[in-house]
Design a protein that fits this description.
The protein has five helices and no strands. By secondary structure, it is mainly α. Helix 1 runs antiparallel to helix 3, helix 1 runs antiparallel to helix 5 and helix 4 runs antiparallel to helix 5.
Length: 118
């Protein structure tokens, strides 16, 4: 197994764990992320969980450089949307910034993995 495939497998695992948390929505985790701010509505959290699950499946089934690059683009778009959400809806700021941060880390990891495979 190549280093790129091993790295993609780790990234896929991280996405699967994140999706599981978002889809299950354990109150303790959501409260820890939101702190003293309002937790976003459940349906929004679940939609984000489904997005993350779809990305994990795509990267897990076909961990190629092109798929990783698409994942990077999706993560960057998600991070940008969460930064906008943090500004527009201050009551969800902490949750949105946490989501933007995890998407940014995922994007950086995807860039590294995609370029390592060249």
């Amino acid at each position: 197994m190549s280093a790129q495939r091993r790295g993609a497998a780790v990234l896929t695992g991280a996405h699967l764990m994140q999706a599981a948390v978002l889809l299950a929505q354990p109150p303790g985790v959501l409260r820890a992320v939101a702190g003293n701010q309002t937790v976003p509505p459940s349906w929004i959290v679940r939609v984000l969980g489904l997005r993350t699950l779809a990305q994990a499946i795509a990267e897990g089934v076909r961990p190629t450089r092109d798929v990783l690059r698409v994942g990077v683009a999706v993560d960057l778009a998600h991070a940008a949307s969460m930064l906008t959400a943090a500004r527009v809806w201050p009551r969800y700021r902490r949750a949105a910034l946490t989501s933007a941060g995890t998407a940014g880390i995922s994007a950086l990891t995807g860039i590294f993995l995609a370029e390592a495979g060249q």
